[in-house]
Write a structure and sequence with these properties.
The complex is a heterodimer of chains A (365) and B (426).
Chain A (H helix, E strand, L loop, with lengths): L12 H31 L1 E2 L2 H6 L5 E2 L3 H7 L1 E6 L5 H19 L5 H16 L3 E9 L4 H30 L4 H12 L5 H12 L5 H8 L14 H27 L2 H9 L4 H12 L1 H15 L4 H7 L10 H11 L3 H30 L1
Antiparallel strand pairs in A: 1-2, 3-4
Chain B lengths: L1 H18 L1 E6 L18 H15 L3 E5 L7 H10 L6 E5 L3 H5 L23 H6 L1 E2 L2 E2 L2 E2 L3 E8 H6 L3 E2 L2 E2 L5 H15 L2 E4 L7 H11 L6 E2 L2 E2 L4 H15 L9 H9 L3 E7 L3 H8 L9 E5 L9 E4 L1 E4 L2 H6 L1 H16 L1 H5 L8 H4 L2 H4 L10 H4 E2 L7 H18 L3 H17 L1
Parallel strand pairs in B: 1-2, 1-3, 10-13, 15-17
Antiparallel strand pairs in B: 3-16, 4-5, 6-16, 7-13, 7-14, 7-15, 8-9, 11-12
Helix pairs in contact in B: 7-9, 8-9, 18-19
The chains are: A mainly alpha (365), B alpha/beta (426).
Chain lengths: 365, 426
């Protein structure tokens, strides 16, 4: 590109780029990079929220002790089938990624990423307290497990529901346009409103669900305080809340599919569900990947639904990682320990972000 | 014209800005729109406290009171974050049980030498009220009430079961007798004997603690957790026997248990002093299942009387006293105003802290007041601890696990013991 001849001085592309990037980089550094490294720094200290505010010298450097107190324990051993559920899924995952790679259904990097995730699922749950041992913080890993369970239920729930809705609501009619808007509306509500609505819906005394159950002769379920239903309740509320964006992404994906394919399919009798299965779904692969990874990153940060609807209960069955971090930092004032947990959450989400990057790049090649 | 409007606005702003000293105020108790400034007519904690604050704002010369938006459930998290960020409210309410956590790091202003000048007569406070706001022999707050767990009684259901004598309910004196009474109520009315929030808010914990204290035991002693004991098992089984026999429902939360009581679906509701005026007002309505409402002291099921109790107190942040003496003086005026309106706050059902109010005819005439006069004598709480909030949460989680998820009592008490010990060791 020819350089413009100005009257005074001319900027090179690099200089212009630097000048234009400076405002963004300043904001990014002040509000994201600095707090992140400060968080890591705090995680290496015994740091009381209130005490340090009144006396900056009240903190003390403890190295990795916070990480040890949160994630490790006394006399911890490893067993191949200590948590059979997770570990068997991990083993199946390792085998599946190897088979998919050999069959040519998955690229090298995809298979490697899947295999690594499956390996972690096999290795990490194998750690457990040996005889006479105990975790220093016996609630941390169950809380991580709850968070993974929540993500494991909410992500497929949102993805499948949003995809089916998008397929059903793709079209030009006025009714479909109205329904698209209606289904998107829940997305704009704040978590406090969503949880309030669903607390009323789930109430065993006045809720819509309880009334319907009674209408059909059943006894109402106490959703939010029953062990088997509390997690389901917050997952249902989350799916209702997060449908909108996923649905819009799927709609965009569906509208990108060439109509010729459907016409060709129709000649071979592939219409309705058959057309969805053989034409729509394969062409949405890339959108599905984006939606799934974005949802995973989003739902690992779940907080409001658990905090406001169930208070983490009953018996910690809906206690999730961000709520535990919040309680440790603000209820217990243990900022160092809370920061160590936050760094752990960052590593998990960073892993999924890398996975998204890898999968996205592989498709481009 | 335009100039006149701008001029008038600027003058008004200048006038109000120059005269009024703004006092920011943090409180829980919930929101009340349109509370007004009449402190004698509002009903319920939220509206009564807001009417007192509004009256202070309207009455005190040169002081404007600005109530900050806070959420009850996360109140202490918000206040602590505000302290950590250097922007705490000029005055804020707190519980007695939180004093060690705040005062141990010097967060609360020492009011000892300034109260008399502000018009607050410390000698009029009950001894236990003075104790509630004293830390290391210095006064760090102004007490507002004693509150405690009571037994709220539906006399119609109790009478149907033959459990009313001389207009007062017959309450049990042992766990076994409580089971008999509960069976009698179920047989006569088909309704539950007892309701409370055993599912979310820690009222279930407070019931178990009261029964523990009634046996002369406690949850920790110094730095040693003492939860996994026969006394705790006795206290828990006194409650779970009702759940197991279908005479009480552990799955109701605060709103649902209260609604069950107001609907006439439970003979007893265990809840605090803060709802006495509200239930009185509800019982007076024609469309409520609850008609004849009575308030009773928490009964003694074991050796000695005890019920869970606490105090609401008002405090001023230490940095305010050091850095902003004018705001500090205005904040003290607001506290003096609240102290002067102790009788109005007592209308909620809470017990007053000022001797002159406790001895007044107006106080004695408050609804149901005589029915729970014994509560002040049996009021108890756990030993002071900077980790009170976390300890309560451990107990709440483990006790709920017993009656909501079927966790064994042995496992729950062993876990609670380990977790509380871990908190005491930190």
């Amino acid at each position: 590109m020819p350089r413009q001849q100005g009257a005074g001085f001319a900027l090179s592309q690099r200089q212009a780029a630097v000048i234009l990037l400076v405002p963004f980089l300043t904001v990014y550094a002040v509000f994201l990079i600095y707090p992140f490294f400060k968080g890591v720094w705090i995680s290496l200290h015994d740091w009381n929220l209130m005490a340090v505010a009144f006396n900056p010298d009240a903190k003390s450097y403890v190295g990795l002790r916070n990480y040890e107190r949160v994630m490790w324990g006394h006399n911890i051993t490893w067993g191949a089938l200590a948590s059979p559920g997770f570990q068997i899924i991990g083993l199946i995952g390792i085998l599946a990624s190897a088979l998919l790679y050999r069959a040519g259904r998955a690229g090298k990097v995809t298979a490697l990423a899947m295999g690594l995730a499956a390996l972690l699922l096999f290795v990490l749950p194998g750690f457990h307290p040996g005889e006479g041992g105990r975790w220093y913080d016996r609630r941390f890993w169950p809380t991580v497990g709850n968070t993974i369970l929540f993500v494991g239920l909410a992500v497929p729930g949102v993805t499948i529901t949003a995809m089916l809705l998008a397929a059903a609501l793709d079209g030009e009619t006025r009714a479909k346009a109205v329904l698209r808007t209606l289904f998107f509306l829940s997305q704009v509500l704040s978590v406090t409103v969503v949880t309030l609505i669903w607390q009323i819906m789930f109430s065993p005394r006045q809720g819509l669900i309880a009334n319907l159950t009674e209408l059909f002769g059943g006894s109402p379920i106490v959703w939010l305080t029953a062990e088997g239903f509390a997690m389901a309740a917050i997952v249902i509320a989350t799916i209702w809340w997060s449908l909108g964006i996923a649905m819009i992404l799927f709609l965009a994906g569906i509208q990108d599919i060439s109509k010729d394919l459907y016409e060709a399919g129709a000649l071979d009798n592939a219409t309705g569900a058959k057309a969805f299965w053989y034409i729509t779904l394969p062409n949405l692969k890339r959108t599905i990947t984006v939606v799934v990874v974005l949802q995973i990153i989003l739902h690992f940060q779940v907080f409001g639904q658990s905090h406001l609807m169930t208070g983490g209960g009953p018996n910690d069955t809906t206690q999730v990682l961000v709520r535990y971090i919040y309680q440790t930092a603000f209820r217990d004032s243990e900022l160092g320990r809370a920061s160590a947990m936050a760094v752990f959450l960052f590593v998990i989400m960073g892993g999924f972000s890398i996975l998204q990057f890898v999968l996205g790049r592989e498709k481009d090649e | 014209m335009k100039h006149a409007i701008f001029g008038a606005t600027a003058l008004t702003l200048l006038a109000t800005g120059a005269v009024a000293q703004e006092v920011t105020l943090g409180r829980f108790f919930g929101d009340c729109e349109g509370a007004g400034t009449d402190t004698k007519v509002s009903v319920g904690e939220a509206c009564i406290i807001q009417s007192i604050i509004n009256a202070a704002d309207a009455t005190l010369d040169g002081v404007s009171v600005n109530t900050l938006p806070t959420d009850w459930g996360n109140y202490y998290d918000q206040i602590k974050a505000a302290y950590a960020g250097g922007t705490p409210p000029a005055v804020h309410v707190m519980h007695r049980h939180r004093v060690p956590e705040f005062a141990s790091i010097g967060a609360l202003a020492d009011l000892t030498d300034d109260l008399a000048a502000a018009g607050i007569d410390v000698s009029d406070w009950e001894a236990t009220a003075l104790e509630a706001v004293t830390y290391n022999d210095r006064i760090i707050g102004v007490p507002m009430d004693f509150h405690a767990n009571l037994w709220h009684v539906n006399l119609d259901l109790m009478e149907a079961a033959g459990l009313v004598v001389d207009g007062a309910p017959v309450l049990p004196s042992s766990p076994e007798e409580m089971l008999e009474h509960a069976r009698a109520v179920k047989a006569a009315t088909g309704q539950d004997y007892l309701a409370a929030d055993f599912a979310q808010f820690p009222i279930g914990v407070r019931v178990v603690l009261a029964l523990l204290w009634q046996q002369g035991a406690n949850i920790f002693d110094g730095d040693t957790a003492t939860i996994d004991t026969p006394e705790t098992r006795n206290a828990i089984s006194a409650i779970t026997q009702l759940f197991d026999a279908g005479l009480a429902n552990p799955q109701l939360n605060y709103a649902d248990s209260q609604q069950a009581f107001l609907n006439g679906e439970a003979a007893i509701l265990v809840n605090g002093t803060w709802v006495v005026d509200f239930y009185s007002a509800e019982a007076a309505k024609d469309d409520q299942g609850l008609n004849r409402y009575f308030v009773a002291d928490f009964p003694t099921l074991f050796d000695e009387g005890a019920t869970w109790a606490d105090s609401h107190i008002w405090a001023i942040p230490a940095p305010l006293k050091a850095d902003a003496p004018e705001t500090y003086a205005a904040a003290l005026q607001v506290l003096a105003f609240i102290n002067d309106h102790n009788i109005d706050w007592a209308r909620t059902g809470h017990m007053a802290v000022r001797t002159s109010v406790l001895n007044s005819a107006e106080y004695a005439a408050l609804p149901h007041r005589g029915e729970y006069a014994g509560t002040a004598e049996i009021a108890r709480d756990t030993p002071p601890s900077v980790r009170y909030g976390a300890i309560q949460d451990v107990l709440n989680r483990e006790f709920q696990a017993i009656w909501l998820t079927g966790k064994s009592v042995d496992a729950a008490l062993s876990d609670a013991q380990a977790d509380v010990q871990d908190l005491l060791d930190r």
